[in-house]
Amino acid sequence: MTDKHRLVAGQFHYRSKTLYCEGVRMTALAKQVGTPFYVYSQTGLERQFRSFDSAFDDTPHLICYAVKANSNLSILSLFRRLGAGFDIVSGGELMRTLRVRSDPRKIVFSGVGKTVDEIDLALHHGILQFNVESEAELEVLEARAAAAGKIAPVAIRVNPDVNARTHPYIATGRVENKFGVSADSVLPLCRRASRSRHLRVTGIGSHIGSQIVSVAPFVQAAKRLVELVQTLRTSGFKLRYIDLGGGLGITYRDESPPEPSEYAGALTKLVRGLGCTVIVEPGRAMAGNAGTLVTGVLFSKKGRVRNFVVVDAAMNDLIRPSLYGAYHRIQPVVLSSRRSWKADVVGPVCETGDFLARDRIVARVRAGDLLAVMSAGAYGFALSSNYNSRPRAPEILVCGDRFKIIRKRETFRDLIRGESAEPIV
User: Which end of the chain is more exposed for a tag (fewer CB within 10 A), N or C?
Assistant: First the structure.
């Protein structure tokens, strides 16, 4: 493990050839909870929040953690205690944030397809703002606010047509993407909203994608937002918030993403003097390198053209490699002097796409050995499923030499909860 990776990997390090999370041995966790399991460093999570919060110190701001990255209640509670707000994209995520006693006035609701029930729930709890992504959504929001006798706070999400230079599945700021509205639609939408007694325009925002490892796309998008703020002010709109979105990347392999201080420095120069509170919505950058998936080796298999390491974690546990072709560093939990070989690291799921790594140089391992899949704290468990009727893995939070099971491993009873075992007769 390189010094750089040790620094960014959320307090994961080796002692006496054994991988630790902070002060807890991964071998001890595996013995107690079994494999596979997710483990998160509380120190790493705290450090990342504080690095974002302090980076915007000289600007009125609100750090709204993107719940979709990792929505475990303990992690949300940790961020809430540190002062975070939340960026949500569903009613379920709203209920999670409320469960940990978050302040609804620190919650922004994004997403292109908010349902009537979700809108009603958010209106009832008095969230900070709805990031509206279409005229049709604005009309529904107005109707639901009128029915509830409330005024809905609205920020228009702009699609700035910026190339974020990331995987096309997680790019959200190009004209061909489903997100937001065009810049020339913003003023008409704001005028439309201003005519309603049940809508109040509070801000403007954008979100251009995820795993972005350069400041330039953020700057380009922010410049377009600033121009729109000035245009709207000329037309009489007094905006309170400018939402710069999230998307700052992390180091998975050899990327060199900007530090939060560099990211914030570039953006605050642009928005300073607007008189707006800045909202940013980091998710991956807060949680990604603070988490690891630990998996047990079942077999090694030498094929005619490929070698395989079969482990007990699968695409249902971590789908990013199959879905995005994403790279996760994979390393032994206990270092040995065995020679390396090139192999695919695959799981038990009955799909050729069930892999955690392909053509990877890995240590030769034996049944019962443990492997750590690094940088799995964001979009790891959050994207997991029960495919092949596999129970989802437990989640563990570590702080110093203490740990807590923050989600139990699912059981067969959990898998069939809500199902009926009887057909129609």
Answer: C
